[in-house]
Structure prediction request, 491 residues.
Amino acid sequence: MEQFISTVKSQVIPLSPVDMLSGAVNAPYAIFYQNTDAADDFMPSEQLKTAFYLALQEFPILAGHLKQTGEGSFSMVVDRDNLNMPEYLESTSDIHYKDIKSAGFDKKVWPNGVVTAGAIMVSDASGIIRAANVHIVRLKENSGLILYLSIIHCVVDGFGYFAFLNHWAAVCKAMRGGAVETPTPVVRFTFDRTIVEQSLQTERKQLDAPTSNVFAKSGLLSKWLSWLSPETRGRMLRFLLSFTASETHVFHITDSTLETLRSSVREFVPEGMRVSDNDVLVALLSKTYTQALRSSQENGGNIVTRVLGSIGSAVVGRLFGAEEHRETCIVCDIRPRIGIADKNYIGAPLILPFISNSLYNLLTPTTAESLAGIASNVRRFVDSLDAPYVGTYIDTIDSAPSFFIQPAFYLVEHYAALLTSNQTRFRMFEADFGDGHQDWVTFIKNRPGAFIFMPCPPPIKGVNVSMCVEAHAFRELLANEFWMSITSQIN
Prediction:
């Protein structure tokens, strides 16, 4: 730690409105390592910790304070004389790695207390929001460990998260190999938020109606939330989400199954239209979860949410109303759309556009043909998210102090809306601290209706779908014949 403190320089990094779209949540993952060789020196504590602080030299923003500098304006303040050092904990457990692995890494069999900073960004017991939290849990008989790492999302997205994790691992592995000097990253990162603004084109285009409506529905409660300090806002959002009984699960779709499904869907889309795996997955989950929610409602599930919803959507939202459409928020990385994919930019350059689908189409039986209609809609929508669109979106969230919180609040308020995030291209299984790569990576739940598309641990091919779903709706999802015929449940 002393070496990091001696090298860090004071600086203020203003966060952009785009960063703050993710300003209410963390990026939290639990990462599992097995001691396959029963090595006595498996991922040694002192070297793990030393490597962590050495890796921080390339990511000093993780020792910064999140400060509100104005209405809707925030900065990360790295003060050499008052650093906000990440929380770094280590503990032991009497649970064996094989028991966790045999249960498909189900959270129900994890040791208590693994998650030290949850999905919502809140302050710790000392009243401080830590930019990063680490918890190393060593399992019974040195059989393996769980590395829990949470980073506030307004500082990094998935690209930045795994860039830091992989750099930390590379530093540790080099140390254990006898390296005298700390290895530098293969690439140099930039944290300069102005790169986004400087890369925007002058051309603009109108936002789609569903996304525009999300901002148009900004009301007194969302404005009040935006006015609150980050600490208070986090507590309030966590309170609102506490009314739902949600569960997290993971399903696997094989490479061959996904390709067969995509080929079947392609037969019903307009001639010449490209259909990606993501298009099919978004369409599939949009139909499957909407059908599960409707069946749950008809079968009397989720009574608490429905009763509270009757008090007012401003409190906890509603499952189903009189709307004829349902929205899906597709998390979109703007790097390739504004030409900075090669800049190794560390931030949260993500926008949250919403696509609308007919409720009637979502509730029809799931077939290749019914999927094609929604997948085509997704493809046209994703193709429209170009540089002029990004420019208008950023102009919009920059036009009112409360707009940075509105998409997140809309998702809290409307539990029938889905959120999808495609993380299949993240370097998720490359963090070797000297004893091999991770066995498993789990994303910690945030809200019901969130679906994360994740890569599989090598050499397995295909896609893992990590989902956070309303508990009663999950029972209905298990009864969906189409979904269960093409997936296998991991946990």
Observations:
- The first helix runs from residue 2 to 7.
- The mean pLDDT is 91.
